[in-house]
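Journal club prep — side note

Before the paper discussion, L.F. wants everyone to see what a predicted structure for a comparable chain looks like in token form. Sequence:
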Amino acid sequence: MTCRNYKDLMMAYLDNEMDDEQKRAFEEHLASCAQCTKELKEFQKLKQLTDGVTLVEPEDRIWEQYWGGVYNRVERGIGWIVFSISAILLTIYGGFELIEKIIKDQTVGILLKFALLALIAGLAILFVSVLRERIYFWKKDRYRDVRR
């Protein structure tokens, strides 16, 4: 076996998971390989450190706060999506109503009508985007209470 194979067995050796024959072959290799011996000592130090580590379960209160925060973020995200879509649709509808006379006018070309609809849709999307950004940064502004 090569050093690479023995390196894969180091943790099994430290955890006493080898049978007697594997253990003897591993120890013979260690006697003739300084690099593997050095690496085994590093693994022993690491194992000593990790054996002393214990898992501490958080209190139920912390789990409730965590999951409550997750649900709040999901709900708010969905709320913003619904709000944004509604605002876009209402803005488009309002804009359409405002220029309905132009669209119904037979003397106005079809290209101008599509351009007006595209303009209204673009303005609605831009308006909602800017509004959302302003509201978001207004809530997150660290310097909001600082007087200039």
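L.F.'s comment for the group: The chain is about 80% helix and 0% strand. Keep this in mind when we get to the figures.
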